[in-house]
Write a structure and sequence with these properties.
Rossmann fold, LacI/GalR-like_sensor, 434 Repressor (Amino-terminal Domain), 348 residues, 6-stranded parallel β-sheet, elongated, DNA-binding, 3 domains, single chain, LacI family transcriptional regulator
Length: 348
C-alpha cells in the first residue's frame, strides 16, 4: 500500500517559485512579503494541502508564534468584539491565537492556563477571574509575557489594559440625572469582580455628587434569570421605585428586557434603560437602546503592542525591561431613545 508523503515547506517554495525563507515569512510575518509573492505562496499552500506543525516548529526554533487568550466567556458583546479584534491583529501579524474559557472559575482558569503553557505559547492575554492569584503566580514562575485586560489588580508583575469604568459610570449617572432621574438602579452579576466594584463605587459617588438628591440602588442578578426578573420587577413596582436602570452587560440587558416584557413594562415610558455594553441589536430596538460602548479595538491594539513589547523584553537582561504599565481607555456613552424623562416629570 502506498503512503502519500505530506507536502513540506520546500514543496510549497518550489511550486510558488520562491525561496523557503519567503514561504516562512508568509506564514510568520506576511506584512514583509510583496502581495504578488504572498498570493503565489498561499495558492501553492492551498493546492498542495500544506499544513505547518506550529508546535514542532516552536520546539525546533525555541520560539513560538502562538498567543494564548483566556476570557471568562464569549457571551457578552464586549468579549465577542474583543476576541474578534485580537484575532484580526494576530492574523495580520503572522501569529496564531488559541482561546480558552475560564467560566469565572479560578481553578478552571489555573488549569487551562497551565495547559496553554505546556504547549509553549509565546505569550498570554488574559481577562482575570475574581481570584486570579494562583494563575498570576503560575505565570510569574513560567516567565511568560502576559497582559491583563479589562480587570485591574494591584499586582505589579503584569501590565494592564482596561476601560475607565469609573469615568464611564460617572458620565452615565450624570446623563440620567440631567434627564430628571432621581433614583437609579444598577444591575451587577458578579459583585466580587474588581470591575464591578469600580463601577459601584463610581455609581454611588456620582449619586452623592448630583446637583439634586439622587438615590442609587444596586441589584445583584445572580445566576438565575427568572429569580432576578422577579426581584427586578418588585423593585420597579415598589414605592419610590427607580426610574432608570443601568444593565451591567449585554447578557443582563437581555434578562432585563425579558423581565420588562413579562411584566408589561415599556421603556422609556415606564423606566429608562442603559446597557453597559453594545449588543449588535442595540440600534434596531424600538426605541434604540442607550449604550456605553467599550473601546474594544483600541483595547485590543494597546494590549497587542504591550505584549509585543514584553516579548522583546523577554530577550533582554531584566534590568533593561520597561516598567509595568496600566493603560486606561475611555468609553463612549450614547443616550438614545431608551432614555427619557421620568413618567411623573414627563406628565407635569
Amino acid at each position: 500500500m502506498s503512503v502519500t508523503r505530506k507536502p513540506t515547506m520546500h514543496d510549497v517554495a518550489r511550486r510558488a517559485g520562491v525561496s523557503t525563507g519567503t514561504v516562512s515569512n508568509v506564514l510568520n510575518d506576511p506584512h514583509v512579503v510583496s502581495a504578488d509573492k504572498r498570493e503565489r505562496v498561499l495558492a501553492a499552500i492551498a493546492h498542495l494541502g500544506y499544513l505547518r506543525n506550529s508546535l514542532a516548529q516552536s520546539l525546533k526554533s525555541e520560539s513560538s508564534r502562538v498567543i494564548g487568550l483566556c476570557v471568562p466567556h464569549a457571551a457578552s458583546a464586549y468579549f465577542t468584539s474583543l476576541i474578534d479584534a485580537l484575532e484580526d491583529i494576530a492574523y495580520t501579524r503572522g501569529f496564531e491565537m488559541v482561546q480558552i474559557l475560564s467560566r469565572h472559575d479560578p481553578d478552571m482558569e489555573y488549569r487551562r492556563v497551565e495547559t496553554l503553557l505546556a504547549h509553549r505559547i509565546a505569550g498570554l492575554i488574559m481577562v482575570p477571574s475574581q481570584s486570579p492569584h494562583r494563575t498570576f503566580d503560575l505565570l510569574d514562575r513560567a516567565r511568560i509575557p502576559a497582559i491583563m485586560v479589562d480587570r485591574f489588580w494591584s499586582d505589579e508583575r503584569f501590565d494592564y489594559v482596561t476601560m475607565n469604568n469609573s469615568e464611564a459610570m460617572t458620565a452615565t449617572v450624570a446623563g440620567l440625572v440631567a434627564h430628571g432621574h432621581r433614583h437609579i438602579l444598577y444591575t451587577a452579576r458578579y459583585p466580587d469582580l474588581v470591575t464591578t466594584q469600580q463601577r459601584i463605587t463610581a455609581f454611588e459617588a456620582a449619586g452623592r455628587a448630583a446637583p439634586e438628591p439622587t438615590r442609587t440602588t444596586v441589584l445583584v442578578s445572580g445566576e438565575d434569570e427568572i429569580a432576578f426578573g422577579q426581584r427586578l420587577i418588585a423593585a420597579l413596582r415598589a414605592p419610590d421605585a427607580p426610574t432608570a436602570v443601568i444593565a451591567s452587560n449585554s447578557v443582563i440587558t437581555l434578562w432585563v428586557l425579558r423581565a420588562f416584557k413579562a411584566a408589561g413594562i415599556t421603556y422609556p415610558d415606564d423606566v429608562s434603560l442603559v446597557a453597559f455594553d453594545e449588543p449588535v441589536w442595540a440600534d434596531v430596538m424600538t426605541p434604540p437602546l442607550s449604550i456605553i460602548r467599550h473601546p474594544s479595538i483600541a483595547i485590543a491594539e494597546a494590549t497587542w503592542e504591550l505584549l509585543m513589547e514584553r516579548l522583546g523584553d523577554s530577550r533582554k537582561p531584566p534590568a533593561e525591561a520597561k516598567p509595568r504599565r496600566h493603560v486606561q481607555l475611555p468609553a463612549t456613552l450614547e443616550l438614545r431613545g431608551s432614555v427619557g424623562a421620568p413618567r411623573i416629570q414627563a406628565q407635569s
